[in-house]
Amino acid sequence: MRSLVIHKAKDLRIEDTPVSAVGEGQVLVKMAAGGICGSDLHYYNHGGIGDTIRLKEPMVLGHEVSGHIVELGDSVTNLNVGDLVAVSPSRPCGHCQYCAQGQRNHCENMRFYGSAMPFPHIQGAFREMLVADASQCVKAEGLTAAEAAMAEPLSVCLHGVRRAGELVGKRVLITGSGPIGTLCVLAARAAGAGEIIITDLVDSALAFASKVGADEAINMATSAEKLDKYQQGKGYFDILFECSGAAPALASGIAAMRPRGVVVQLGLGGDMNLPMQALTAKELDLRGSFRFHEEFEIAVNLMRKNMIDVKPLISHTVPLEDAVKGFELAGDRSQAMKTQIAFN
Q: What's CA 238's distance to the chain center, in Å?
């Protein structure tokens, strides 16, 4: 089969790789769609993420995927050949202390598709055929393959919303209107947020957020003064979802928070300076949000029930043969929101 393998920065190749045998409790999935994530772009553009996560060997990229089951392993009874499934990239061990505590996103032995954090690296899912555990697969009947492949980034946002706590009627600020920030608009609205304001530096990205329901979109490069009214007094917002990973965005967001609000950090842009005095004086809660686990099935079901519509965010689709073009598109925020690869 053909797989999409990164060797070093800007060295992305389509290579022939073997198809693994299907074991007990596993299924063989013919890949249909795969979304290019920000971490995939880091590997493509920089050969790693930050200073600590670096490519040490060739690695198949990809973790936002869906496909159709073509073979069932022994003891698999809840899936059928032909089923469209969203495939979770999260494979916790189930035995470590964090798995035992129900914190599977913090598994000490996590095998997350397309990750260079451990060595040997965890190979990813951008391949024509994927052997997956049946437990990773969620039926996506009624969705397109493209929608099903959006379950992974949506799960990240649903986990962030759960970390924030009660959202019904709350005033929400989202900083960063990339795929995660824009999906947070959908997730926060589904959780009952009363008002959602989003900021970014690129008009085209903000346009996607407006399309899916943001009440106001502010370009901080050209119209930063529009945030001033929310920073007056002791602030305005109850919840901040920081999705850019940029220190200036976090600082401007905290300045607009009311006392005892909740700041949820989703953006992974490296270490940032934190306005600790403002955080302290306003008695703000700072909460990290990392990956997801049980939210994956929830994401699929919310889409299947038409409670969340991700279709407006899928801006580009390229065939596997044009994967490099797809990565270049995905990195161009003036054009793309979510770029996907079609495997068939």
A: 23
Distance CA 83, CA 196 (A): 36
Residue 10 φ then ψ, to 5°: 65, 15
Bridge-partner residues for 86, per DSSP?
A: 66, 138
Whether 302 is covered by a domain: the verdict is no
Round to whole Å and give the CA distance between 170 and 179: 22
Please tell me the distance from the alpha carbon of residue 146 to that of residue 268, in angstroms, as a whole number.
25
HEC per residue, 207-258? HHHHHCCCCEEEECCCCHHHHHHHHCCCCCEEEEEECCCCHHHHHHHHHCEE
Looking at the domain assignment, is residue 294 inside a domain?
A: no
Number of domains forming the structure of the chain: 2
- Per residue in 287-302, pLDDT (tens digit) is 999 999 999 999 999 9
Q: What is the pLDDT of residue 66?
A: 98
Looking up residue 277, the CATH number of its domain turns out to be 3.40.50.720
Looking at residue 27, which CATH number applies to its domain? 3.90.180.10
Q: How many CA atoms lie within 13 A of 22 on its CB side?
A: 19
Total length of the chain: 344
DSSP 8-state symbol, 145: H
- Calpha distance 104→95 (Å, rounded): 10
Average pLDDT of the residues in 74-82:
96
The boundaries of the domain holding residue 165 are 155-288
- Decide if 88 contacts 112 (C-beta within 8 A): no
- Residue 339 · residue 331 · CB < 8 Å: no
DSSP letter at 168?
Answer: T
Q: pLDDT digit string (tens) for 187-231?
A: 999 999 999 999 999 999 999 999 999 999 999 999 999 999 999
